[in-house]
Amino acid sequence: MANILLGLEVTLIGFSLTMLSLYFLYLILAGFSYLQQRPDSVEVVAETAKPLKVLQSESPKDKACPSELVAVITASISSYLRKSPPEFAVISVRPQKTNFHSDWVTAGRNNLLENRRQIIWRKERRS
Question: Cα–Cα distance between 3 and 11 in angstroms, integer?
Answer without folding.
Answer: 12
